[in-house]
Amino acid sequence: MLSDSDMLHLRRALELAEQARGGVSPRPPVGAVIVKDGQVVGEGQTEPRPGRHAEVAAIQAGGDAADGATMFCSLEPHAHQGVSPPCTEEIIRAGISRLVCPIEDPNPQVDGNGFRRLRSAGVEVVTEVPESTRKQAEELISGFAMLTLHNRPQFTLKYAMSMDGKIATSTGESQWITGDEARREANRLRQHTDALVTGIGTVLADDPRMTARDENGSATGRPRLRVVLDTHGRMPASAAILKEPGDVLWIVGEGASLQNSSMDPVRAPVSDGEIDLEWLVSSLADRGCCDVLIEAGGRLAGGFAAAGLVDRVAAFIGPVVIGGAASPGPVGDPGFPGLGDALRVTDTRMKALGDSFLITGRVAR
Fold first, then answer.
1. How far apart are CA 94 and CA 71, in angstroms?
2. Are 70 and 98 contacting, i.e. CB atoms less than 8 angstroms apart?
3. Higher-confidence position of 180 and 110
4. Which of 61, 162, 286, 329 is a plausible cystine mate for 42, CB 3.0–4.6 Å?
């Protein structure tokens, strides 16, 4: 049984991992805290390649004080030679005597080998943690696990809708369905994603920036990649998304005539008149994206849903009723013919955000 003090430090390690999420793919976001005689002597979090792993950053911050200390780490340290040397050997060399860690690394090259190596070197390894803590740790690396085990990113479908399930009025007006606090939460979602995908219809209708922004309204540099699916090459050079910091991946169909010559597109195969989504999945995996956020109109959202590519849902609900048969919903054609075919969402959670709500969950497979 972990003490209250142990749980405090483990929660801090998870908090550091959360901060790294969205900025370190294809690495997993990890946090590490080193404690000696009740005092924190070092902290670290995963850095983008070729930077340090969380464990090494914490050890270097702790220096000689790491000898005989306890390390709290959000994910099992790796014991193999990869892009970076084995973290287990750094832990052993530093003299750390105890490791508290909630989960094994899903990477088949790790898969418990890190824990076994540390135990063989005399390090006490503690993995018994509350179930809620274990689930939190697993959720932090769920995108990394998807990429590692299935060679594709984890896709989250995010949308804001009215209480009667509309994302815009019949005339296309959609700003703003939710309140300020909900929009701040949406920025946090963007902050913790590797890539954001939208469609040209959204770009032309709303001219969004598609960036995560801090409390002062300044761009944070995340998501690191914003993707626009534009089958016919209609994106204008004046689009706001092109004026923000960070990379934009403009994907057009093969043979499309471009209306914008200010940047080079990536040409993609077309299926049924739309960018081939399986091609997109493979392309994002090749770029090392673990977590991808879909912020698009109903047509593109419907395409992702029909293709079985939605893994998580984040539905923001604003305190308005729009009405109208012509007012669009969040997931459009082709839809599902029966309830047995529909996406079933499990592990649902509801969070109040001022006068709005956020419902999240994972799509059952």
1. 11
2. yes
3. 180
4. 61
- Dist CA 186 CA 162 (whole Å): 16
Q: How far apart are CA 262 and CA 256, in angstroms?
A: 15
User: 224, 194 in Cβ contact below 8 A?
Assistant: yes
Omega of the bond leading into 223 within 30 degrees of 0 (cis): yes
The H or E element that residue 161 is part of is strand 154-161
- Token digits of residue 152: 């594709």
**Positions marked catalytic:** 55
- The span from the CA of 290 to the CA of 142, in Å, is 8
Q: Give which of 70, 82, 77 is closest to 54, Cα–Cα.
A: 77
Which tokens sit at 215?
């409390």
Please determine, for residue 82, whether its predicted confidence score (pLDDT) is greater than 70. no
Amino acid occupying residue 196: L
Torsion angle of C-alpha atoms 118, 124, 130, 136, degrees rounded to 10: -30
CA 287, 52, 97: angle at the middle one, nearest 5?
130
* Percent of the chain residues past pLDDT 70, beyond the cut: 99
pLDDT digit string, tens, across residues 155-200: 999 999 999 999 998 988 888 899 999 999 999 999 999 999 999 9
What pLDDT shows up at residue 174? 82
What residue spans of the chain are helical by DSSP H? 4-20, 54-62, 87-94, 113-120, 131-140, 142-150, 180-191, 200-206, 277-286, 298-306
Cβ neighbors of 252 (< 8 A, separation 6 or more) are: 230, 231, 232, 233, 258, 265, 266, 267, 268
> Contact 77/87 with Cβ under 8 angstroms?
yes
Compute the distance between CA of residue 17 and CA of residue 30 in angstroms, rounded to an integer.
Answer: 4
In 3D, which of 268, 215, 274, 202 has the Cα closest to residue 241? 202
Q: How far is CA 253 from CA 44, 260, 270, in A?
A: 43, 14, 6
Question: What's the count of helices (H) and strands (E) in the chain, helices before strands?
Answer: 10, 16
User: Residue 288: its pLDDT value, please?
Assistant: 95
Among the listed residues 223, 198, 210, the one whose alpha carbon sits nearest the alpha carbon of residue 299 = 198
CA-nearest of 265, 291, 263, 267 to 279 is 267
Order of strands across the sheet that contains 225-230 = 266-268, 247-253, 225-230, 195-199, 291-294, 154-161, 312-317, 356-363, 345-353
